Structure formats: C-alpha cells, structure tokens
Amino acid sequence: MKDNVSELLNASQQAPGGGEGGRPSWLASTLAFILIFTIVVDILGNLLVIMSVYRNKKLRNAGNIFVVSLAVADLVVAIYPYPLVLTSILNNGWNLGYLHCQISAFLMGLSVIGSVFNITGIAMNRYCYICHSLKYDKIYSNKNSLCYVLLIWMLTLIAVMPNLQTGTLQYDPRIYSCTFTQSVSSAYTIAVVVFHFIVPMFIVIFCYLRIWILVLQVRRRVKPDNKPKLKPQDFRNFVTMFVVFVLFAICWAPLNFIGLIVASDPATMVPRIPEWLFVASYYLAYFNSCLNAIIYGLLNQNFRKEYKKIIVSLCTAKMFFVDSSNDEADKIKLLCSVPFVSAMMISNLLKTLEVWYTKDRMPDEPQRLPIKSSSGFAS
C-alpha cells in the first residue's frame, strides 16, 4: 500500500508538459481565472440562497429544503477541493500530500453525487406539487422533507465510500485535480455513470415531462373542469428548477460520456481522447457549481428581492437576521437603490449637526423635531 501511495505522489508532482512545451503557457492562467471566478460566485451566491430561505417566510417551504441542500452541496467544493486545485495550478503540480488528495477527491465526489440526488429530489417534489397537489401536503410535510434530505445525503455517502477501496481517487495532472479516475476499473466507472448520472437524469426527465404535459393541457383547456389548475407562480418556480436541471445536465454530460467511452476500452480509448476536450469537460463541470444561485436570482422574484435586501443590509451595516417577508414593494426598491444609501449618509450627517446645535442652543429656543429622511424613517 505504501508503495502505491509513493508512486501516486511521485507521479502527481509533475504537471503535464513539465515545462517542456507540452502545453500553451496561457492555459494555466485561464484555468486559474475560471476557478477563482467559480469559487467566489459559488460561495457568495450559495450563501445568499441559504440566507434568503432563512430570512423570508415565503421561501421557507418544503420544496426549498432541497434547494438549500443543493446549495450546501455546491458550497462543499468551493470551500475545500477547488482552493486545493487552484494551489496545484499555481504550483504547476500537486505538493499537498496524499491525505489532502484523498480528502479533496472524496469531497468532490460527495458534492457531485449530492447535487445529482438533490436535483432528483427537487424534480420529484415539483412533480408531486403540480401533478398530485391533493397528496402533496401529506407526502412533503416539513418533517418528511427533512427526512428525505437526510436520506439523500446518506445515499450520497454510501455511493462515494467505495472509491476509498477501489483506488479510483487519484491526482490527474491534466486537470491539476485529485478526482475520480475513469481508467482504473471499467466496470466500476460504468456503474458510477449509470447509477449516479444516467438513472437519476431519466427520473428527472420523467418528472419534468409529466409536468410539461400538464402545463400544455391547462393552457389548451377551453372549459373549466375538475382537473388541477396551475398558478403562474407555481409555473415560474417549476421553470426555475427546470433550468437548473438543464444546465446541470449540459455541464456534466460531456464528462460522463467520456467516462463511458474510456471504460469501454481504457488502453485504447484514453490516448484517443483529446486533452483539450478532457480538460474542458472537467472545468465545465466545475463551473456548474456557481450557476444555481444566479438562476434563482434571474428567474425567481422572491429570491431576487431577498438578494437585494441582504446586500443592501450588508452595505448599510444593518442587522439582516430578521424576517423580511412582509416589507412593502416600494421600500424594497428604495432600499436597493444607490440614492437611498446617499440619503442615509446625508441623514446621519444632519442628525450629528442637529445634536451639536441642540447642545449650544438658547434655553428659550423651541425644541426641534427629528429630521426625517426621504425613506420615511426618522433619522
């Protein structure tokens, strides 16, 4: 075992090309930029998602428990594995040791499979909510939804554990990452792709196809009947999660299909896979972890409003661990505007001047009323 570990570490010290012109000089810089952008947007965006659900009662529902769980899965890679990959890029090789390599690869697998299972859980939740609305409250109570999320993470952990025994978690110098190595075991690679990607994607496709069929039926209906009606808000929420699924499938499908090709005949197929295609497929998959929070902000009005309020609360040094679901729409627009911040600063300045003036005023001078800012709050 120690000999295998030593061989792995020795092999992992050398980056592809080894400074001999095997790779263009700009590639490492490009990959580093992509990774830095992904890490920053991933952490900030998914923290916004979690805080939005925590703060807003309208977002605090059974369906969004899976959204928070998906955000946690995306955060896992941004906090530990991606920074180590970035270090490997900057050092032109892995010099962090075998233990960090195994932990990084394990957490990356945990995040990926956790994301797949959470997206599957979200699709099943939307399917029950729209197509079986009468049974939804019983199936997806808050307690049951928490149990489903715990089950998802238990299954994720069980799915990742065999990697520690099969020796498939290794450093790949082409992508500067410790990750799942597709060429170690053909049977295991095929099993991973089938059960951790293809089967869940078919379940998701089935759920969303049924929803789309119902949507078309509702829109073409002329006379009212006893069939379920689809609210505009429900449809927008469905579209948001559908886009999350589509982008996930687009980002991860190339890497999984390459895995199937490699598993068919590793000795023959590995040299035939262009390195640029392999690297591009990996970093496209990495990039997916920062997209979900952006999608929620673009397509979901409640998330978008909450994002703005959290950002403004931070910028104006206000406490934001409060419920804000009942705020008025005009206040939201005002708080999110640059003029409001300027007005607050001017108001504070006026307040300071007023205190200074009050201390030095004549005894018989009438008491001044507090000055109010343009937002309607006493300054």
Automatic annotation (TrEMBL):
NAD as UniProt keyword: no
Subcellular location: Cell membrane
InterPro entries on file: GPCR_Rhodpsn, GPCR_Rhodpsn_7TM, Mel_1A/1B_rcpt, Melatonin_rcpt
Keyword field contains Transmembrane: yes
SUPFAM superfamilies cross-referenced by the UniProt entry: Family A G protein-coupled receptor-like (SSF81321)
Transmembrane segments: 26-50, 62-83, 103-124, 145-164, 190-216, 237-264, 276-299
Region (Disordered): 1-21
UniProt keywords, alphabetically: Cell membrane, G-protein coupled receptor, Membrane, Receptor, Transducer, Transmembrane, Transmembrane helix
Membrane topology per record: Multi-pass membrane protein
Highest taxon of the lineage: Eukaryota
Residue intervals of the G-protein coupled receptors family 1 profile domain: 45-296
PROSITE patterns according to UniProt: G_PROTEIN_RECEP_F1_1, G_PROTEIN_RECEP_F1_2
Chief site of localization: membrane
Homology family: Belongs to the G-protein coupled receptor 1 family.
UniProt name for this protein: Melatonin receptor type 1A
The organism of origin for this protein: Apodemus speciosus (Large Japanese field mouse)
